[in-house]
Amino acid sequence: MTSLQELTQVVGVVARQVAPEAISCDAGNGFDGRLGLRISAIFVILVGSLFGAAFPVYAARHEGVGVPPWAFFIAKYFGSGVIIATAFIHLLAPANEAFGNECLTGPITDYPWVEGIALMAVFLLFFTELMAMRYAAFDSPNAAAATANELEHRNSPSQPQRKSSVISARSPGDDHLGHNRPYKDHDHDNSHGNNDVEPQHPHGGKWVEDYAAQMTAIFILEFGVIFHSIFIGLTLAVAGDEFRTLYVVLVFHQTFEGLGLGSRLATTPWPKSKRWTPYLLAGAYSLSTPIALAAGLGVRTTYAPGSQNALIINGVFDSISAGILIYTGLVELMAHEFIFSSTMRRARLSVVLNASGMMCLGAGLMALLGKWA
């Protein structure tokens, strides 16, 4: 009889350990009121995100703002580090946590889907960018002739050089988005000026090729940070006891991430007809988290971030975003910025070390924020 009682107790203990875990998968969320504070987060994050993403563009185009050259230098490389750390710390880690949740069972637990999805995203982006560059190169009118004429035009000693962006005159490594053009030194043939109007090359073909490559890189980065920002907003909307800490951390998180995006938008040479495009992209980024936060508050009584569907969706999109930002960070912001840039290769060692230090600082601070968000 004693053995039967002991067996019954053991079964009861096991049942109590298993049953709550099964129920907790759809146990709602941690929303605990404080609606006014949560609503304020919509506007605070909106202002921080918009400032980080749009101000670098505005400051680069208006010298009267008085932003010194070293500030652009810091913002640019600090932002690169932020984006790289976001991919590994704020996307890969949460995706692994979502797919590793005990609520998920079956085939989805039999394969490292986070790394697999990120790998697929990297290759998809590579082929997308490759095809975009080839399409611009072969389908633009007279592209081959324009390229040859451009080289002759550039090498002519009697031909004056054209102005480029104000940031190109200030910071080395600004040719990181020129995937297929020679990595030339802009420091000696540019001058300060208003960056609202970026002159197109008179022959057109080469400009189309470069512009297509630049736009591909920019939109890749844009989509990566927007996907990530949407789920940040949903998480903050239904957070429980950790809401205050998460609120403060995400304000800095979104501002720093916006700075990384904004510094890329500011260094891209936009034609006159597209002069408002960087502001539109900055606005889209700054609205993503506030809109998701507002939507999360609207469904706060039904949204369950711990449910199987929510875990899978979060894991998949975090993995995709991680692949996007890993590709962008390693290829666009590190390889093109440092290794393939003739300007950076010829720069003083102190400049290279300062740029590397700023990038490490941005990555370090963003990685530190990963402790709380």
Explained architecture:
The protein is globular. Helix 2 runs parallel beside helix 7 (243-267). Helix content is 69%, strand content 0%. The termini are far apart. By secondary structure, it is mainly α.
Gyration radius, in Å: 24 Å
Number of strands: 0
Low-confidence stretches: 10-23, 158-173, 175-205
Helix count, per DSSP? 11
Strand content: under 5%
What is the percent of helical residues? 55-70%
Tell me the structural class. mainly alpha
Overall 3D geometry?
globular
Q: What sequence of helices (H) and strands (E) makes up the elements?
A: HHHHHHHHHHH
The averaged pLDDT comes out at 78
For the report, how would you describe the main beta sheet? none
Question: Cα distance, first to last residue?
Answer: 53 Å
What would a concise description of this structure say?
This protein is mainly alpha-helical and 373 residues long. The chain has helices at 2-24, 35-61, 69-99, 113-139, 143-155, 205-237, 243-267, 277-298, 308-339, 342-346, 349-369. It is globular, with a radius of gyration of 24 Å.
